[in-house]
Amino acid sequence: MSDNSKNAQNRNAAVQNQIGNEALPLTTYWKDVRRRFLKNRIAVVGLLILLTIIVLCVCAPCFTQYDPMMDMDLMNTLVRPFSKEHFLGTDDLGRDIWSRLLYGGRMSAMTGMSVTLLSAALGIVLGLVSGYYGSWVDALLMRFTDIMLSFPFLIIAIAIMAALGSSQGNVILALAIVGWPKFARLTRGQVLAVKNTEYVESARVAGFKNARIIFNHIFPNCIGPLIIQATLSTGSAILSASGLSYLGLGCDAAAPDWGVMLNQGRNYLQQASYLTTIPGIAISLTVLSMNWIGDGLRDAFDPKMRK
Amino acid sequence: MWTYIVRRILQTIPTLLISSLLIFSLLYVTPGDPVELILGTEDANVSEEQRRLVEEQWGLDKPFLVRYIRFIKGVFVGDLGTSYATGEDVFSSVIKRMPNTLKLAGSSMVIALAVSLPLGILAALKHNGILDSVATALATIGVSLPRFWFGLVLIIFFALHLGWLPTMPETTSMADGIVPFMRSIILPASSLALSMAATQTRMVRSSMLDVLNQDYVRYARSKGLKERVVIWGHALKNAMIPVITVIGGEIGGLLGGAVITESIFSWPGVGRLTISSIARRDYPMIQGATLMLCISYMLVNLVVDVLYAWFNPRIRLDVK
Amino acid sequence: MAEKMNEEYLRVENLHTYFHTPEGIVRSVDGVSFHIDAGETLALVGESGCGKTVTSLSLIHLLADSAEVFADKITIGGRTIEKLTGEEARAIRGKQISMIFQEPMTSLNPVYRIEKQLSEVFRLHEPKISKREVYERSIAILKRVGVPKPEERLKVYPHQLSGGLRQRVMIAISLASAPRMLIADEPTTALDVTIQAQIIDLLKGLQKDMNMAILLITHDFGVVSQIADRVAVMYAGKIVESGRLEDIFQDPWHVYTKLLIMSIPGIKVTRGGRLESIAGTVPNPLNWPKGCRFAPRCPEAMPVCFEDEPREYVCGERRVCCHLKRGKADE
């Protein structure tokens, strides 16, 4: 049966060839996510739009010479857009709209990010605690979260604002209070999924303290969905904040803020509708780009990618 | 199914209690002196005499728990206090406007469903085609637009530029004629419906896609059933189940969004009442209106849950 | 099983099914030919991924839009079909060829009662049928498949039935239209062993009563031995061996068939007696290997096996695609 050994050799070679032909993934988790994200055209477009907006707003002084609050040209109020001196026209007090847009973007961005940071911090901590310790802590927190989640959040936000008074800081606070349940629930879900894996068991057996286990082992697994939620939350926070400003519950009327600009435009719907349309387009574009990015991230993190 | 319903009702009660407590407590957190608000004076020149009188008259001197219980009782009895600003009875003010808000919310739900169901289903059927991409893009855009801004844009376009529709409602009652009613309600309802239609389109589409991949759809086809029957009968009924759940979640957004929409369109509902009360620091009105909104919200949720139980035979027949 | 000469019901010649995917063309079925007579059972056997389910779905056009199906000839019930359009396929489905699937739980619609899922088949093929008639026929067919208390069972939802009952119900639904052929895709794999035997007996009885052809798809040779008349062994999109059940069992020609049979616990085989498993895995359908597709895993492969695809050697009713041509070969 000397043929057999040769056959066995052939067979082994063939099997090896097949294995060699398979494309083995050679990248890390994060590189893979980034690759998938960049392949998604819409997400990339969203990213570009957002970056453009960020650059414009952060370097606002480079792109406009007017001061958004102080430069009031009362001779030239309500100038229409695309005029010679004012790219997007002026408002009823002669302030340049383009400048107010750019500086207002700073305000909105800061608001959106603060809300997200605050609600994420609160929500993540509560979610980690709730998921990890379980039992009555978990039950209590989850009941509370359910109640908060089941509320029409705008009503709560308005009620909080009514109690605390109007200011941008209170807007951030109110929206953060309304926003943490989403993060808490998300984190808790992730914690529960990871908690019972052997990975954590072995850490516990090895004697690591609870806090260390939570932060070193469990937390990194939750990051993906949290990033997605953070992106989407920031967009939604910007929407809500501008809504509250529009109602007059936000920062004061002179400051450049997109919601405030919409509020001011309300009186001039007929004769100067651009006062309303322009800030709205800015808000929409910003939130849209964030939503596209968030969706792209979601698809990038999920290997199954069922469209 | 009945155990499910009873259980749901029982679950609502503690939620209601806690929320009413929160709403009521807000009053205690607010800065500002209620006495001054009532008297309409901002200066501190309120004599002891006057203060005591006002406090007694308005029950402001009683302890927290007593006032809270009176507040709760008020819901059933119909007495939620009196407005600081107008002196009107809070309960009747709210009740008078509640139907308007409900009409607005109801119509926008109808509009949202009328748009999202066909769009979502067609997008799923022509998966990855042009319609699918367009529908998904529209849905994402719809979620990104500020709702109140969309309302303003609608006004600018349809009312001011085209002049087809009024900027303020001519009537809120169908008794005044169907056409005036429709003309008055269509803009605010559409504005309110926007974000809900957008999320729902995505939901319907993904739910339908899910269902179309299921074994029972393939089996139904293998029986030789007409494609029409497979899709609109077998697939759709299953696809609707998660959609109803989502609708329940969206209701909150509806009632919350109604607040802003009513302001923009001057729609005389509870939302607009709340906003103007906030401006006037009319706390009893704010409390009463918010509480009633929350109660209606929970009732609607309950109805949606019951509908869901009815649709889903597994729950209906109480199989664990 | 002494078979009277039955007319041929299904004949398939050189069937190909390709899927057009972003990664390339997946050749799931690559030149498959077989035939089934009325009242006969052909078992299509192979590992997961060999293309047997796709073959059956191709016959009744139940694949995704990205699938391309073509063959030299397909004859169903005497009628030769060049290109099966969607509407024609639908007319055949259920009426002439029915199918039952592996998982009765997911195949039955969870939101429809049994009576609705049963009655819609009756109504489809006989639109003018009366409610009374539908009811009586439903009861009758449920009884026939062995469902106790059929009147009650009509009113329930699928999740309220046990696994065995669900499978019986699915059989009842598929037979409601009295089809000439039944495709059974792993009908017993999801069931307990005791129920398996009952279902197989049921299928045999029904086949005899209705003179129905059965295309049985399975990876389980045990089930094959209980019900099949003929066997076709499939590997990597091609049929590597086919013939009568007894012949294949007693003297398998293809190495793959041999290994499959030897891996059945409890079966006495002519050589050895050890339980063997087959090394390696099914190759990637995006990229079938050159030469004989089984060669990489074949313990008796010769150099030529890696170069040339083996031609089919025919000997009476037996066919085999293997360079190690066993038995008398007609060249």
Describe this structure in words.
- The complex is a heterotrimer of chains A (307), B (320) and C (331).
- With 307 residues, chain A is mostly helical.
- Chain A is built from twelve helices and no strands.
- Chain A has helices at 2-21, 29-39, 41-58, 60-63, 97-133, 135-149, 153-164, 168-195, 198-205, 210-246, 258-265, 274-301.
- The N and C termini of chain A lie far apart (55 Å).
- Residues 11-26 of chain A have low confidence and may be disordered.
- Chain B has 320 residues and is mainly α.
- Chain B has 13 helices and no strands.
- By secondary structure, chain C is of the alpha/beta class.
- Classes of the chains: A mainly alpha (307), B mainly alpha (320), C alpha/beta (331).
- At the A-B interface, helix 7, helix 10 and helix 12 of A face helix 1, helix 6, helix 7, helix 10 and helix 11 of B.
**Low-pLDDT windows of residues of chain C:** 327-331
- The portion of residues forming beta strands of chain C comes to 15-25%
Structural class of chain A: mainly alpha
The main β sheet of chain A shows up as: none
Q: Given the structure, what is the number of helices of chain A?
A: 12
Helix and strand sequence of chain C: EEEHEEEHEHHHHHEHEHEEHHEE
**What percent of residues of chain A are in strands?**
under 5%
Order of helices and strands of chain A: HHHHHHHHHHHH
Structural class call of chain C reads alpha/beta
Work out the radius of gyration of chain A.
26 Å
Mean pLDDT of chain C: 83
Q: How many beta-strand runs of chain C?
A: 13
Largest interface: A-B, 44 and 49 residues
